[in-house]
Amino acid sequence: MAELLDLQDRWQFDVHTRDIDDDPTLRERYNTLVPVLTLDGQEICHYFLDPERLASYFE
């Protein structure tokens, strides 16, 4: 999470954490892929932060 927050200054995005167990739809979709990073409904990466994939989303 700290690495993601460090990148937040570069691209000006908000970070919201959600517990997928609180939402059956999210639990079904991401059950074994947590942690997962999505932006505007698009999956960017899962298991670990991929800064290159995140950069490609913004650039």
Detailed description of the structure:
The protein has one domain (about 1-59): Glutaredoxin (3-Layer(aba) Sandwich), CATH 3.40.30.10. It is elongated, with a radius of gyration of 12 Å. By secondary structure, it is α+β, with helices and mostly antiparallel strands. Helix content is about 40%, strand content about 15%. The protein contains 3 helices and 2 strands. Strands 1-2 form a two-stranded antiparallel sheet. A hairpin with a 2-residue loop joins strand 1 and strand 2.
Describe the structure concisely for a colleague.
The model has no long low-confidence stretch (mean pLDDT 93). This protein has 3 helices and 2 strands; from the N terminus they run ααββα.
Reconstruct the topology from this structure.
Elements: H1 2-11, H2 24-30, E1 36-39, E2 42-46, H3 51-58
Count of structural domains: 1
Looking at this structure, what is the CATH superfamily?
Answer: Glutaredoxin
**Overall average residue pLDDT:** 93
Q: Helix count?
A: 3
- Provide the gyration radius in Å: 12 Å
Task: Please report the total strand number as a whole number.
Answer: 2
Largest β sheet strand count, sense and barrel closure = 2 strands, antiparallel
Give, in order, the helices and strands: HHEEH
CATH class: Alpha Beta
Question: Which architecture would the CATH scheme give at its second level?
Answer: 3-Layer(aba) Sandwich
Structural class: alpha+beta
Helix content: 40-55%
- Cα-to-Cα separation, first versus last residue: 21 Å
Instruction: Tell me the β content.
Output: 15-25%
CATH topology: Glutaredoxin
**Overall form:** elongated
Strand order of the largest sheet: 1-2
